[in-house]
């Protein structure tokens, strides 16, 4: 736009990044936390921590559903896993509050487990891709819009920084603006494949909403025809009206496992249970495959005879499945997910350093007098980058500290989150910029470090117990919170040490060092 | 951003940026959507596979379109450069459609 390709890309990088930077920061942070969604959901329900796995869980749970809900169109069962020792069952029930029942069951007895009201890890997950309190479709559109800006910012950022390899080794600490630029570049370059992957695959996860035109054309606007062709979602046959008992489930699980070369069943769907036309669909665990396109097999529900199987083998479908799988990161063991978590943290910090860099540059250009736009960016930076972690920590604390029998307890946890964030967003209006940063970062650090302590005071599943028992699912959540606390504390110390705004001389020097970014 | 520019040229510059933003958002989306339906209709795979391929590729098209719009020397060239692929892709889509209908 202005002279030359690189200059115009530097402009595009600055503005595409800045305009949606705060939404992107929130999406990156909650998304990174969501890698541990099942673990957090379990951590937030201490009443379930006693549940232990049972190899015959499927049998126990089907027997219990037979007793509790014999006359429903279908049962959906999520079997317990290493991440979550509790089974979940779902069925339609017109008399229930929202037209369905979703219960958690003890895999040993089949008994319903009741836990405190909490959104658990699902809160961060829902915030990450639909902003939680918004109407979901609006939230998804906004997120997709911002993700598109992110993709443009990444591509234009790559053009702006030609020295990709040298940037690995370039960090000039305590040089004000230049350190922020170096830090931003290091975080971006080190995890560049991850940033590109997570942004593009994120767009793909919502593409049926945002880019539906190819489905409209090829399926004459019939979403269901597309779903049937791609996801293998088909309506079960009608009930025959003839009662018939279900076939034993354990031999079917063994047969499915044989078909999948040792893969385990993760989900069971029984259609028309108790009827002669019953079918049993078994789907493989999603932690065992990179792609989320599931392998499934369907058996006759009364005879146990094999009916059909679905092996995802279509290239485009499998590509979509792999992109989706890469994005949600449920494949792999703890080490892989810890690495993804680290990459997510780097992405979060990259977005943060980007918006801070802009504000620092404005301040150095204008000296102590900052313009209203720059002041607004500074306030938003503190309220988001330091404020959102405070809200996250408050959400964890609320989970442990709100009375267990509080009405609308799950909603109150979310309210605590937004109240904390609201206060953090207003606080920088009243304080000097550097003070606001320090106070909020220290608050965040103290709150995060307090969660494991409050956990130890209020439950039996604290670090002392979980580490000794080798329970990494629960210990991992406490350790993640400690990592956040230490990181925030370290950042607060750095902010406290670094010297106040640079003199005009240094600002000019900084501009010379970055001709491409100086506008 | 330069603050010293005369008000008239400053206004022109802002208008140029606004016009490019419209071209990037709406033109870029139109180009991406048209590319996705061209692939959906034109690829020799099954309808579901072709549709998925078109949808997954569309975001790369949109990114390229946005980069073009802001890299072009003038706003007018940006608009021309985004309009040509849209017209071409639209034409290809109609031709493919007719070919399938026949």
From TrEMBL, chain A:
InterPro entries: PepSY-ass_TM
Keyword NAD: no
Transmembrane segments: 12-36, 138-159, 180-209, 338-359, 379-398, 410-429, 441-460, 472-496
Keywords annotated in UniProt: Membrane, Transmembrane, Transmembrane helix
UniProt key word Isomerase: no
Source taxon at top rank: Bacteria
Protein name: PepSY domain-containing protein
Automatic annotation (TrEMBL), chain B:
Alphabetically ordered keywords of this record: Membrane, Transmembrane, Transmembrane helix
Pfam families in the cross-refs: DUF3649
Name used for this protein in its record: DUF3649 domain-containing protein
Domain of life: Bacteria
Taxonomic source organism: Plastoroseomonas hellenica
InterPro entries: DUF3649
Bilayer-spanning residue ranges: 21-44, 50-71, 78-96
């Amino acid at each position: 736009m202005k002279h030359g390709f690189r200059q115009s890309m530097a402009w595009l990088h600055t503005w595409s990044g800045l305009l949606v930077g705060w939404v992107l920061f929130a999406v990156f942070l909650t998304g990174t936390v969501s890698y541990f969604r099942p673990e957090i959901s379990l951590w937030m329900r201490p009443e379930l921590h006693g549940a232990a796995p049972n190899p015959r869980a499927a049998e126990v749970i089907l027997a219990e559903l037979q007793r509790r809900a014999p006359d429903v169109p279908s049962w959906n069962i999520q079997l317990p896993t290493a991440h979550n020792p509790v089974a979940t069952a779902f069925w339609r029930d017109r008399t229930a509050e929202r037209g369905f029942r979703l219960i958690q069951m003890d895999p040993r007895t089949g008994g319903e487990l009741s836990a405190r009201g909490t959104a658990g890890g699902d809160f961060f997950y829902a915030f990450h891709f639909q902003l939680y309190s918004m109407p979901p479709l609006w939230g998804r559109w906004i997120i997709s819009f911002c993700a598109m800006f992110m993709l443009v910012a990444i591509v234009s950022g790559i053009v702006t920084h030609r020295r990709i390899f040298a940037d690995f080794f370039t960090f000039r600490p305590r040089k004000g603006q230049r350190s922020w630029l170096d830090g931003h570049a290091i975080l971006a370059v080190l995890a560049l494949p991850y940033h590109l992957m997570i942004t593009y695959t994120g767009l793909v996860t919502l593409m049926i909403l945002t880019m539906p035109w190819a489905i409209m054309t090829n399926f004459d606007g019939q979403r269901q025809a597309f779903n049937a062709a791609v996801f293998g979602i088909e309506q079960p046959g009608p009930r025959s009206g003839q009662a018939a008992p279900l076939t034993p489930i354990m031999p079917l699980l063994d047969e499915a496992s044989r078909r999948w070369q040792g893969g385990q069943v993760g989900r069971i769907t029984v259609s028309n249970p108790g009827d002669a036309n019953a079918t049993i669909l078994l789907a493989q665990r999603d932690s065992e495959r990179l792609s989320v396109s599931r392998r499934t097999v369907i058996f006759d529900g009364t005879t146990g005879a094999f009916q059909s199987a679905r092996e995802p083998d279509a290239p485009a479908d499998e590509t979509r499945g792999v992109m989706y799988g890469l994005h949600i990161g449920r494949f792999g063991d703890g080490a892989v997910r810890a690495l993804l978590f680290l990459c997510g943290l780097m992405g979060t910090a990259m977005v943060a350093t980007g918006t801070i860099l802009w504000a620092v540059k404005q301040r150095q250009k204008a000296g102590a007098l900052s313009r209203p736009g720059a002041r607004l960016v500074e306030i938003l930076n503190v309220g988001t980058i330091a404020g959102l972690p405070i809200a996250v920590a408050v959400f964890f604390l609320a989970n442990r500290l709100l009375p267990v029998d509080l009405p609308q307890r799950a909603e109150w946890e979310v309210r605590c989150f937004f109240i904390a964030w609201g206060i953090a967003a207003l606080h920088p209006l009243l304080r000097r910029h550097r003070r606001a940063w320090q106070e909020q970062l220290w608050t965040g650090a103290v709150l995060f470090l307090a969660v494991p302590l409050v956990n130890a005071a209020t439950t039996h599943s604290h670090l002392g117990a979980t580490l000794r028992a080798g329970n990494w699912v629960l210990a991992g959540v406490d350790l993640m919170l400690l990592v956040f606390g230490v990181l925030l504390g370290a950042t607060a110390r750095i902010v406290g040490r670094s010297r106040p705004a640079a003199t005009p001389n240094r600002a000019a020097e900084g501009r010379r060092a970055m001709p491409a970014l100086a506008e | 951003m330069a603050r010293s520019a005369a008000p008239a040229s400053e206004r022109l510059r802002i208008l140029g940026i606004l016009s490019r933003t419209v071209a990037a958002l709406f033109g870029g989306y139109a180009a991406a959507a048209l590319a996705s339906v061209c692939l959906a209709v034109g690829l020799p795979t099954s309808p579901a596979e072709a549709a998925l391929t078109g949808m997954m590729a569309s975001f790369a098209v949109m990114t390229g379109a946005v980069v073009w719009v802001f890299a072009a020397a003038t706003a007018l060239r940006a608009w021309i450069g985004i309009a040509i692929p849209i017209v071409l892709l639209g034409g290809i889509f109609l031709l493919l459609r007719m070919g399938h209908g026949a």
